[in-house]
Amino acid sequence: MTPADVSAITLTLKLAGLTTVLLLLIGTPIAWWLAHTPSRLKSVVGAVVALPLVLPPTVLGFYLLLLMGPKGLVGQTTQALGIGLLPFTFAGLVVASVLYSMPFVVQPLRNAFEAIGSRPIEVAATLRAGPWDRFRSVVLPLARPGFITASILGFAHTVGEFGVILMIGGNIPERTRVLSVAIYDHVEAMEYTQAHWLAGGMVLFSFLVLLALHALNGKTRVL
Amino acid sequence: MSSDGSVRIAFSLQHPGFSMQVDLVLPGRGITALFGRSGSGKTSCLRVVAGLQAAQGVRVQVGDEAWQDDARGVRLPTHRRPLGYVFQEASLFPHLSVRDNLEYGMRRVAAAERRVEMAQAVQWLGLSALIDRRPEGLSGGERQRVAIGRALLASPRLLLMDEPLSALDLASRAAILPYLQRLHAELSIPVLYVSHAIDEVARLADHTVVLDAGRVVASGPTARVLNETGDLLPLGEENGVLIEAVVGLHDGAYHLSRLDFAGGHLWVTRVDIAVGGHVRARVLARDVSVALSPASDSSIANLLPARVLSMQEEGPDRVLLRLEADGGTPLLARITRRSRDQLGLAAGMAVIAQVKSVALAA
After folding, report:
1. pTM to 2 decimal places
2. Which of A175, A181, B160, B282 has the greatest count of CB atoms below 10 A from its CB?
3. How far is A109 from chain B (nearest CA, A)?
C-alpha cells in the first residue's frame, strides 16, 4: 500500500466518523419531530430528508456544487463569513456527506421513536421526570437498537459515497481523495493489486463492524 | 376554599362528535370512582387532571395547590404535579428491573418530601419476591401491583387510577382487589379511580361520580349514587342496590352471619369481620323475587317486608320492580310480566321481598 492509499483510508475514516457524529446530533431532533408532530409539514420534511435515497448522487453533487460555489447562496454566505468556499475542501465533503447520508440515520431513529410511542414518556412525566430527563432515562435506552442501526448505516453509507464526492470534492490527495475515489483511480490505471488491497480491506472491515455490532446489540436485530 | 384538601376539577373539551363539560368538587380523602360506559370521558378526565391532555377553561386544584387555572394563567407541566398515575396497562419500563421501576419516581422526589417508604410499599403490595426480577417475567397482576407501587413511591398528593384491573383476567383481578382495599385503609391520599365495572366501584369507592356522554349525571356517596341512578347506568344483569350494613351476629353452628341495616337484616355465609364491623352488601335485581305473604315453606331465608314504589317493563317478558323495605332501604326485583299479572302487583302494594343471594362488596 502506498502512503497515498494510507492517507485515503484515514481521510475516509475521519470523514465517515465526523459525518456520523454530526448526523446523530442533527438527525435525532429531526427524527423526534417526525415521529411526534401532528403538523402537516411532516410529510414535506419527511420527503426532503428522504430525497437522497432516490436522487442520483451526481444530481445531488451538482446542485451542492452550485449552491456552495462563488455564485451560490451558501457560497456567498461562507465567503462573507470569511470561511471561504466549501467545494474541494474537507469541510465541503462533510457538508455533502451529512446531507447525502441523512435518511440512513433519520429513518431508523424515527422508526425507533415511533415504536416507543408516547406511553412510556407519559409514564415518566407522571413520575416527576422533566423533558430532558425523560429523553435520557427512557427514550435513549429504549431506542438503543435504533441508534446503533443509524450509526452503522450512516457510517457505512458515507464510506461508500462516490458520485457526490467526485462532483464537489474532486480528487485532491490528502484533502478530498477518499477511499472509493482511490480505488477508482487504481482501477483506471490498471493497478489491480492496489485496488484489491483497498477493496478487499473494505469488505473485511465492513464485515467485522457488522459482526461486532450484532454481538453488541445482543438479541435485537440491527439491520 | 379548598383548604379542607378537597379536589376541584373543572374543564370543557370540544372534539368533533364529542364534547365534555365537567365541574366537580371531590372529597380530599378516600376513593372516588369515575364511573360510566366507555366513551363517557372518564379517561379524558384523568388525563386533564394529570396535564397530559389539553382542554379549555381548565381548573385543577388539589387542596390549596392550584395545578392548573387557565383563568389565572397557571399551568404546571405534568412532571411538576405531585400525582401518581396508574395506567390501564401497567406500562413498566422494560429496560429497568422491578426495583429500578419502583425507584424511578422516588428518586425524583426530594428525600424530605417522601411520604411512602420503599419497605412499606413492598409490604403493602406483596412485592418482596418480585423486586429483583425483570418486568417481562411478571404476570399481568404482578405488573400492575408494581405499577401501583411505583406510583405510590412518588409520594403523590392525588393518585389517579385508570381502570387498573380491566386488562387482567378474573383471577388476577380477584387477587389484586384486596391490595387496593388495604391501600384504601392505610393511605390518606385521595384516589380518583376510573372504572366501568360496578363490582369494583361498589367494593372500593366511598364517593362515586357517574359520567355519561361527557356530562356528570351524579356525584355523591357511592351507595346513594348507585341506588338512585341505577337506571342511567349500563348495568344490565348487574343492576341492583348497595346496602350499607353492620355485622349483627355470627351463627357459628350454621356458619352464617347476620347483617343489620335500617329496617331489616340479611343472613349471609359467615363473614370474617367482627360483630359491629361495617360491610357493604350488593343485592342484584335478578336475585330478588316477591311474594304476597311470607312463605314458611321456602328455602329462602332472607325475607324483607317491602312496598312497591314503581314498576318498569324491561323487554317483552320482564319487569323491574322498585321496592322500599321498611326503614327506607331501596331494593330492586326483576320478575316476569306473567308473575306481575298473576300476583296483581301495583304501585303502593305491600309485598315480601325474597332475597336469594347477597354479594359482599367490602
Report:
1. 0.81
2. B160
3. 18
